[in-house]
């Protein structure tokens, strides 16, 4: 496959045999980004095992190098980072190019923006379309100057940090772990207490990793479903070891492939079971999926388990909006599972999907239409009419809009449709799951690139 910036490379999947075997999907992207960033902000040496070596994370590593960290790769997934400590960042000589990495760019705005240096952020065509204003607004309150920005608060943009960052209390306007994390990371270089209030709990990897590296963080319930997270500023973070658990968002693709492909029986090894990341598994179990947790254990501050997944008859359910933060990246593949279910699945409150790598809601709907699946969009709800296991498939190649999750979701769909499915470009799958196609082939999937 060509690189994400080169020519489009269509990929086709077709129905074939049952999926069998064991596989370990790559390391979690969220924790991989953060392990690099915390390595940069720590004193001494940080060692990372199981790092996701996709393009997004490697861009974050390059940015950390540009800000002063010494980073060496010691083997597959094994990295060593010697940090400069909070307050020790050097001004980069060039713009930080994050490619397609929304998480890396947004988190790093909190890191670099809180230091008295000038930093320019840029990315590929897809990243340049993504809104950054809701990250910039709280940073400005903390004393960060937005020197320049593309229209609508988008990259390329340049930030200049203050001599001393102001601690704030901030209620996030949307359930977003990226907004929360950017503020907390900025708060590290701020005297006093920085507090983020969220009305709905979002994934808590930043809080867990702050503690792992020695920061003081207090988390209290706030309202019905929310939390208030308070960070004591200017700690001395100490280099640490991070074992990256496997990414539940990546595991979602072989997991659903096994559920919808008749006769399948697979084991997914070491999948992260953080309750703020398992919304998809909760939903699939409600739909009647056969998913067994085996050998639960702790890795790097996170609970992990092996999952045995067998093909299952699924039934449509209503997925409440409150579950969205725990599965925001999994809706494209859930829509595929819902296509094969009996009855109607209604996914509520998907506003956040409109501001992902693409307008994911529109992209999922267009792919469903190509495959002959009936659906409606009502406001921010996606309603999928299941076909009880008989999805036509075929149609024109699905437009991925440079979105890796759209590409993988519809390739999974093609393993169980009546006609093959093609996506217009598979190159960007490398941003999050570079081994997706070979690993799926090892299980018995027919995918041609």
UniProtKB/TrEMBL annotation:
Keywords: Amino-acid biosynthesis, Aromatic amino acid biosynthesis, Cytoplasm, Transferase
Localization (cell): Cytoplasm
Enzyme Commission no: 2.5.1.19
Region spans: Disordered: 1-24
Binding site residues for 3-phosphoshikimate: 29-30, 34, 176, 178, 329, 356
PROSITE patterns per UniProt: EPSP_SYNTHASE_1, EPSP_SYNTHASE_2
Pathway(s): Metabolic intermediate biosynthesis; chorismate biosynthesis; chorismate from D-erythrose 4-phosphate and phosphoenolpyruvate: step 6/7
Keyword Transport assigned: no
Sequence ranges assigned to domain Enolpyruvate transferase in this UniProt record: 15-438
Annotated GO MF terms: 3-phosphoshikimate 1-carboxyvinyltransferase activity
CC annotations in GO: cytoplasm
Catalytic reaction annotation: 3-phosphoshikimate + phosphoenolpyruvate = 5-O-(1-carboxyvinyl)-3-phosphoshikimate + phosphate
Record Pfam families: EPSP_synthase
Biological processes annotated in GO: amino acid biosynthetic process; aromatic amino acid family biosynthetic process; chorismate biosynthetic process
Active site residues of this protein: 329
Residues engaged in binding phosphoenolpyruvate: 29, 102, 130, 178, 360, 405
Family according to the record: Belongs to the EPSP synthase family.
Subunit architecture: Monomer.
HAMAP family registered for this protein in UniProt: EPSP_synth (MF_00210)
PANTHER family: AROM/DEHYDROQUINATE SYNTHASE (PTHR21090), PENTAFUNCTIONAL AROM POLYPEPTIDE (PTHR21090:SF5)
Function description: Catalyzes the transfer of the enolpyruvyl moiety of phosphoenolpyruvate (PEP) to the 5-hydroxyl of shikimate-3-phosphate (S3P) to produce enolpyruvyl shikimate-3-phosphate and inorganic phosphate.
Protein's name according to its UniProt entry: 3-phosphoshikimate 1-carboxyvinyltransferase
Origin species: Microvirga alba
Originating gene: aroA
